[in-house]
Design a protein that fits this description.
The chain has 265 residues and is α/β, with parallel strands linked by helices. The protein is built from 10 helices and 7 strands. α8 links the parallel β6 and β7.
Protein backbone atom coordinates (compact mmCIF):
# COMPACT_ATOMS: atom_id res chain seq x y z
CA UNK A 1 0.00 0.00 0.00
CA UNK A 2 2.85 2.38 0.78
CA UNK A 3 4.33 2.00 -2.69
CA UNK A 4 0.90 2.58 -4.24
CA UNK A 5 0.50 5.80 -2.25
CA UNK A 6 3.83 7.08 -3.58
CA UNK A 7 2.30 6.79 -7.05
CA UNK A 8 -1.14 8.20 -6.19
CA UNK A 9 -0.42 11.17 -3.92
CA UNK A 10 1.86 13.11 -6.32
CA UNK A 11 -0.91 13.08 -8.95
CA UNK A 12 -2.60 15.88 -7.02
CA UNK A 13 0.53 18.03 -7.44
CA UNK A 14 0.99 17.55 -11.17
CA UNK A 15 -0.62 20.08 -13.56
CA UNK A 16 -3.63 18.02 -14.63
CA UNK A 17 -4.54 16.76 -11.17
CA UNK A 18 -3.93 20.07 -9.45
CA UNK A 19 -5.77 22.01 -12.15
CA UNK A 20 -8.78 19.72 -11.89
CA UNK A 21 -8.83 20.02 -8.10
CA UNK A 22 -8.79 23.82 -8.40
CA UNK A 23 -11.59 23.61 -10.97
CA UNK A 24 -13.64 21.37 -8.68
CA UNK A 25 -13.06 23.83 -5.86
CA UNK A 26 -14.48 26.55 -8.07
CA UNK A 27 -17.52 24.42 -8.88
CA UNK A 28 -18.11 23.71 -5.21
CA UNK A 29 -18.13 27.44 -4.53
CA UNK A 30 -21.30 27.93 -6.58
CA UNK A 31 -21.98 31.51 -7.65
CA UNK A 32 -19.56 33.15 -5.25
CA UNK A 33 -17.15 35.60 -6.85
CA UNK A 34 -14.04 33.76 -5.68
CA UNK A 35 -15.36 30.51 -7.11
CA UNK A 36 -15.36 31.86 -10.64
CA UNK A 37 -11.78 33.04 -10.22
CA UNK A 38 -10.80 29.63 -8.88
CA UNK A 39 -12.33 27.96 -11.91
CA UNK A 40 -10.40 30.17 -14.30
CA UNK A 41 -7.24 29.55 -12.27
CA UNK A 42 -7.66 25.80 -12.76
CA UNK A 43 -8.06 26.23 -16.51
CA UNK A 44 -5.08 28.58 -16.63
CA UNK A 45 -2.89 26.15 -14.71
CA UNK A 46 -3.59 23.28 -17.09
CA UNK A 47 -3.20 25.56 -20.13
CA UNK A 48 0.14 26.90 -18.88
CA UNK A 49 1.73 23.47 -18.57
CA UNK A 50 0.09 22.16 -21.75
CA UNK A 51 1.87 24.80 -23.85
CA UNK A 52 4.91 23.53 -25.79
CA UNK A 53 6.69 26.74 -24.76
CA UNK A 54 6.45 25.80 -21.08
CA UNK A 55 7.33 22.16 -21.64
CA UNK A 56 10.39 23.11 -23.67
CA UNK A 57 11.77 25.38 -20.95
CA UNK A 58 11.29 22.69 -18.31
CA UNK A 59 13.00 20.10 -20.51
CA UNK A 60 15.97 22.33 -21.23
CA UNK A 61 16.35 23.10 -17.54
CA UNK A 62 16.93 19.43 -16.73
CA UNK A 63 18.67 18.32 -19.91
CA UNK A 64 21.18 21.17 -19.95
CA UNK A 65 22.07 20.32 -16.36
CA UNK A 66 22.42 16.66 -17.34
CA UNK A 67 24.68 17.49 -20.28
CA UNK A 68 26.94 19.51 -17.96
CA UNK A 69 27.34 16.49 -15.67
CA UNK A 70 28.62 14.17 -18.41
CA UNK A 71 32.42 14.00 -18.87
CA UNK A 72 33.81 14.98 -22.27
CA UNK A 73 35.78 11.74 -22.56
CA UNK A 74 34.84 8.50 -20.87
CA UNK A 75 37.27 6.39 -18.88
CA UNK A 76 36.81 2.65 -18.57
CA UNK A 77 34.48 1.21 -15.94
CA UNK A 78 33.74 -2.13 -14.30
CA UNK A 79 30.15 -2.14 -15.58
CA UNK A 80 27.50 -0.04 -17.26
CA UNK A 81 24.23 0.21 -15.35
CA UNK A 82 21.19 0.81 -17.55
CA UNK A 83 18.19 1.96 -15.55
CA UNK A 84 14.76 0.62 -16.46
CA UNK A 85 12.45 2.52 -18.79
CA UNK A 86 11.63 2.70 -22.47
CA UNK A 87 10.92 -0.94 -23.25
CA UNK A 88 7.64 -2.80 -23.77
CA UNK A 89 7.29 -6.50 -22.88
CA UNK A 90 6.78 -9.17 -25.53
CA UNK A 91 3.13 -9.74 -24.70
CA UNK A 92 0.62 -10.47 -27.50
CA UNK A 93 -0.01 -9.02 -29.97
CA UNK A 94 3.68 -8.05 -29.76
CA UNK A 95 6.00 -10.81 -30.89
CA UNK A 96 9.17 -9.44 -29.30
CA UNK A 97 10.43 -6.75 -26.94
CA UNK A 98 9.61 -3.34 -28.39
CA UNK A 99 11.46 -0.07 -27.87
CA UNK A 100 9.65 3.03 -26.65
CA UNK A 101 10.78 6.61 -26.12
CA UNK A 102 13.39 5.75 -23.50
CA UNK A 103 14.81 2.74 -25.34
CA UNK A 104 17.93 4.79 -26.06
CA UNK A 105 19.02 3.86 -22.55
CA UNK A 106 19.68 0.24 -23.46
CA UNK A 107 21.12 1.12 -26.87
CA UNK A 108 23.61 3.47 -25.17
CA UNK A 109 24.65 0.73 -22.76
CA UNK A 110 25.19 -1.71 -25.64
CA UNK A 111 27.30 0.89 -27.48
CA UNK A 112 29.57 1.33 -24.44
CA UNK A 113 30.02 -2.42 -24.29
CA UNK A 114 30.91 -2.61 -27.99
CA UNK A 115 33.32 0.30 -27.66
CA UNK A 116 35.27 -1.68 -25.07
CA UNK A 117 34.61 0.82 -22.31
CA UNK A 118 33.26 -1.85 -19.96
CA UNK A 119 32.94 -5.65 -19.88
CA UNK A 120 29.54 -5.93 -18.16
CA UNK A 121 26.07 -4.53 -18.82
CA UNK A 122 23.69 -4.43 -15.85
CA UNK A 123 20.04 -4.40 -16.91
CA UNK A 124 18.02 -2.90 -14.08
CA UNK A 125 14.29 -2.67 -13.47
CA UNK A 126 11.85 -4.51 -11.25
CA UNK A 127 8.24 -5.49 -11.75
CA UNK A 128 5.89 -2.54 -11.19
CA UNK A 129 2.25 -3.49 -11.64
CA UNK A 130 -0.97 -2.90 -9.73
CA UNK A 131 -3.14 -5.31 -11.73
CA UNK A 132 -3.92 -8.90 -10.81
CA UNK A 133 -2.43 -11.64 -12.94
CA UNK A 134 -0.10 -9.37 -14.92
CA UNK A 135 2.08 -11.81 -16.93
CA UNK A 136 4.86 -9.30 -17.65
CA UNK A 137 8.21 -10.22 -16.04
CA UNK A 138 10.47 -7.57 -14.44
CA UNK A 139 11.74 -5.04 -16.95
CA UNK A 140 15.34 -6.16 -16.48
CA UNK A 141 14.32 -9.42 -18.18
CA UNK A 142 13.01 -7.58 -21.26
CA UNK A 143 16.24 -5.57 -21.42
CA UNK A 144 18.29 -8.77 -21.22
CA UNK A 145 16.28 -10.36 -24.03
CA UNK A 146 16.70 -7.35 -26.29
CA UNK A 147 20.42 -7.08 -25.49
CA UNK A 148 20.86 -10.73 -26.43
CA UNK A 149 19.01 -10.06 -29.69
CA UNK A 150 21.40 -7.17 -30.35
CA UNK A 151 24.36 -9.50 -30.02
CA UNK A 152 25.49 -8.99 -26.42
CA UNK A 153 26.94 -12.28 -25.06
CA UNK A 154 24.96 -13.78 -22.20
CA UNK A 155 28.02 -13.93 -19.93
CA UNK A 156 28.36 -10.15 -20.16
CA UNK A 157 24.85 -9.48 -18.85
CA UNK A 158 23.86 -9.09 -15.21
CA UNK A 159 20.30 -8.52 -13.99
CA UNK A 160 19.00 -6.35 -11.18
CA UNK A 161 15.33 -7.28 -11.32
CA UNK A 162 13.99 -6.45 -7.86
CA UNK A 163 14.33 -2.67 -7.66
CA UNK A 164 11.17 -0.65 -8.32
CA UNK A 165 12.49 2.89 -7.72
CA UNK A 166 15.67 4.82 -8.40
CA UNK A 167 16.51 4.77 -4.69
CA UNK A 168 16.16 0.99 -4.59
CA UNK A 169 18.27 0.63 -7.74
CA UNK A 170 21.10 2.65 -6.21
CA UNK A 171 21.00 0.59 -3.00
CA UNK A 172 20.74 -2.81 -4.71
CA UNK A 173 23.35 -2.15 -7.39
CA UNK A 174 25.72 -0.90 -4.70
CA UNK A 175 25.31 -4.24 -2.94
CA UNK A 176 25.79 -6.10 -6.23
CA UNK A 177 28.98 -4.13 -6.91
CA UNK A 178 30.42 -4.98 -3.50
CA UNK A 179 29.85 -8.67 -4.11
CA UNK A 180 31.60 -8.48 -7.49
CA UNK A 181 34.37 -6.11 -6.48
CA UNK A 182 33.34 -3.24 -8.77
CA UNK A 183 34.63 0.25 -8.00
CA UNK A 184 33.46 2.36 -10.94
CA UNK A 185 30.31 2.14 -13.07
CA UNK A 186 28.71 4.04 -15.91
CA UNK A 187 25.17 5.14 -15.16
CA UNK A 188 22.86 5.34 -18.17
CA UNK A 189 19.39 6.84 -17.99
CA UNK A 190 17.30 9.49 -19.74
CA UNK A 191 18.84 12.95 -19.64
CA UNK A 192 15.90 14.45 -17.73
CA UNK A 193 16.24 11.68 -15.11
CA UNK A 194 20.02 11.90 -14.74
CA UNK A 195 20.32 14.69 -12.11
CA UNK A 196 18.19 12.76 -9.60
CA UNK A 197 19.64 9.37 -10.54
CA UNK A 198 23.25 10.50 -10.30
CA UNK A 199 22.75 12.21 -6.94
CA UNK A 200 21.02 9.10 -5.61
CA UNK A 201 23.65 6.64 -6.85
CA UNK A 202 26.47 8.73 -5.47
CA UNK A 203 24.71 8.90 -2.11
CA UNK A 204 23.52 5.29 -1.80
CA UNK A 205 25.68 2.98 -3.91
CA UNK A 206 29.16 3.70 -2.52
CA UNK A 207 30.54 3.62 -6.07
CA UNK A 208 32.35 6.01 -8.36
CA UNK A 209 29.57 6.83 -10.82
CA UNK A 210 30.16 8.20 -14.32
CA UNK A 211 26.98 9.69 -15.83
CA UNK A 212 26.14 8.87 -19.45
CA UNK A 213 22.83 10.58 -20.25
CA UNK A 214 20.72 9.35 -23.15
CA UNK A 215 17.25 9.87 -24.58
CA UNK A 216 17.43 13.66 -24.95
CA UNK A 217 13.97 15.03 -25.68
CA UNK A 218 15.22 18.17 -27.45
CA UNK A 219 18.30 19.48 -29.23
CA UNK A 220 20.15 22.24 -27.40
CA UNK A 221 18.84 25.81 -27.54
CA UNK A 222 21.55 26.73 -30.05
CA UNK A 223 20.39 23.96 -32.36
CA UNK A 224 16.67 24.46 -31.99
CA UNK A 225 16.17 27.14 -34.64
CA UNK A 226 14.55 30.58 -34.57
CA UNK A 227 10.95 31.34 -33.72
CA UNK A 228 8.46 32.34 -36.42
CA UNK A 229 4.89 33.57 -36.20
CA UNK A 230 3.63 30.07 -36.91
CA UNK A 231 5.90 28.39 -34.35
CA UNK A 232 4.96 30.98 -31.71
CA UNK A 233 1.25 30.38 -32.20
CA UNK A 234 1.79 26.63 -31.90
CA UNK A 235 3.97 27.15 -28.82
CA UNK A 236 1.11 28.93 -27.05
CA UNK A 237 -1.61 26.47 -28.04
CA UNK A 238 -2.11 23.65 -25.50
CA UNK A 239 -1.62 20.04 -26.51
CA UNK A 240 -1.55 16.69 -24.72
CA UNK A 241 2.07 15.86 -25.52
CA UNK A 242 3.33 19.10 -24.00
CA UNK A 243 1.22 18.50 -20.88
CA UNK A 244 2.73 15.03 -20.56
CA UNK A 245 6.29 16.33 -20.96
CA UNK A 246 5.72 19.13 -18.44
CA UNK A 247 4.40 16.56 -15.99
CA UNK A 248 7.43 14.30 -16.46
CA UNK A 249 9.80 17.22 -15.84
CA UNK A 250 7.90 18.37 -12.73
CA UNK A 251 7.92 14.78 -11.47
CA UNK A 252 11.72 14.82 -11.62
CA UNK A 253 11.96 18.10 -9.70
CA UNK A 254 9.52 16.85 -7.08
CA UNK A 255 11.33 13.51 -6.88
CA UNK A 256 14.66 15.21 -6.28
CA UNK A 257 13.17 17.29 -3.45
CA UNK A 258 11.67 14.19 -1.82
CA UNK A 259 14.89 12.21 -2.21
CA UNK A 260 16.91 15.02 -0.61
CA UNK A 261 14.41 15.25 2.24
CA UNK A 262 14.74 11.50 2.85
CA UNK A 263 18.53 11.59 2.61
CA UNK A 264 18.69 9.50 -0.56
CA UNK A 265 20.46 12.08 -2.72
Amino acid sequence: MGFLLTKLLPLALYPLGLGLLVLLGGQAGGNRRWARGLGWAGIGLIWLFAMPLTARQLIWGLEEHSASLAPRSLPSADAVVVLGGGLRPPLAPRTAVEVGEGGDRLLTGVRLLRQGKTPILVASGGRVSFTAGDPAPPEAHWARDLALELGVPADRLVLNDRSRTTAEEARDIGALARRRGWQRVFLVTSAFHMPRSLATFRQRSGLEVIPVPADYQLPSRANYGRATLGSTLLDLAPNAEALHLSTVMLKEHLGLLVYRWRGWS
